């Protein structure tokens, strides 16, 4: 199990609003029921088996093209810890415990 | 007003746990009372005047060095929209409205 | 064809030097002969079919674990342009032409 | 001395080409003669005192707005190593020495 965050930006959209694109990504994510996700004001965080995270991000990267974009910039950050199980909640809790 | 996200990783820490470092960042952030922040499982999101965001991120980048780190990797993403006010909540709400 | 950049950071390595890990990534990349790559002082840039880029980055992400790392932070940026062919050289040339 | 990489993407530009924006950034960078920089197909790498890097990135972030952009996404990665001097060339050489 790993945790990843991605941000997908369509380029050349003629509008500064991206919320429609983000809503489309959200719908695609809901189709992948084995993967937990959480949207933030700056991206989307996923938790699941690493190979599945790669597959799901590959799938959502395609979404803006299906809605008319001709160029997409996708940034991804993966946190892959294998010495202990680290869920999204456990990471937050570890910090809270230290505060 | 802009929104930014940062992730700070100390390198060469001898331990895979970073929650102590993240807790230290949190304490530094609380000193900057004019800046709103929200921690996520993958980073910290800030909202405020752009120049202040740069100053605050510069300050938190220093924190791991004060606690013994000798090398730090900091990644920052800024979303700066000037045609309308976009708070963290408004960005989330715009997506929710489309769903 | 798309262009991607990745940076892989092992966490908890007890040393601030990462060049040994980067050299290991380099060796893995050389095994994927269909993918062009270019190292920079801040990461590695790849060019090739998008699905192959995902596969290759998935493979190099595994390398630090094979050499003892227990936690790895990988960041990836993909530039996927489909309205025209954009190689690494063409992107650089387009900017040079404007200067 | 630290090393940083940044990528600046204007959003809502109506064109998928960004090379004109990148050329503008380049001209701004040349005004900061104390900072070394190197363009890559995926961003721009800077080397210099950390506080100056923050100032210069703050300045180049402003450039697309001066040329009509209303929203800009800027991503930054900082590699700040304080146990030894690490220039762009030394980082590359350290990897080459291991290969």
Put the structure in a nutshell.
Chain A has 99 residues and is α+β, with helices and mostly antiparallel strands. The first copy, chain A, contains three helices and four strands; from the N terminus they run E-H-E-E-H-E-H.
Would you kindly provide a written description of the structure presented here, covering whatever features stand out?
4 copies of one chain form a homotetramer. Chain A has 99 residues and is an alpha+beta fold. Chain A has one domain: Alpha-Beta Plaits, CATH 3.30.70. In chain A, 40% of the residues lie in helices and 31% in strands. Chain A has 3 helices and 4 strands, in the order E-H-E-E-H-E-H. Chain A has helices at residues 19-30, 50-66, 88-98, and strands at 2-10, 36-40, 43-48, 71-81. A 4-stranded antiparallel β-sheet of chain A has the order 2-3-1-4, covered by helices on one side. In chain A, helix 1 (19-30) packs across helix 2 (50-66). At the A-D interface, strand 4 of A face strand 4 of D.
The low-pLDDT segments of chain A are: none
CATH class of chain A: Alpha Beta
Could you tell me the strand content of chain A as a percent range? 25-35%
Biggest sheet record of chain A: 4 strands, antiparallel
Tally of individual helices of chain A: 3
By DSSP, the count of extended strands of chain A is: 4
The assembly state of the depicted protein chains is: homotetramer
Q: Assign the CATH topology of chain A.
A: Alpha-Beta Plaits
Q: Helix/strand-derived class of chain A?
A: alpha+beta
Q: How many discrete domains of chain A?
A: 1
Over the alpha carbons, how many angstroms does the gyration radius of chain A reach? 15 Å
Q: Mean pLDDT score of chain A, rounded?
A: 97
Alpha carbon gap, first and last residue of chain A: 26 Å
The most extensive contact between chains is: A-B, 35 and 35 residues
Strand order of the largest sheet of chain A: 2-3-1-4
Which architecture of chain A does the CATH hierarchy give at level 2? Answer: 2-Layer Sandwich
The helix content of chain A, as a percent range, equals 40-55%
Tell the overall outline of chain A: elongated
Topology of chain A as a string of helices (H) and strands (E): EHEEHEH
């Amino acid at each position: 199990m790993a945790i990843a965050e991605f941000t997908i930006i369509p380029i050349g959209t003629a509008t500064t609003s991206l919320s429609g694109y983000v809503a489309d990504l959200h719908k695609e994510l809901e189709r992948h029921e084995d993967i937990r996700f959480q949207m933030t004001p700056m991206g989307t965080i996923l938790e699941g088996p690493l190979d599945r995270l790669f597959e799901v991000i590959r799938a959502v990267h395609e979404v803006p093209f299906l809605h008319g974009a001709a160029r997409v910039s996708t940034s991804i950050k993966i946190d892959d810890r294998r010495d202990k199980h680290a869920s999204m909640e456990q990471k937050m809790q570890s910090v809270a415990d230290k505060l």
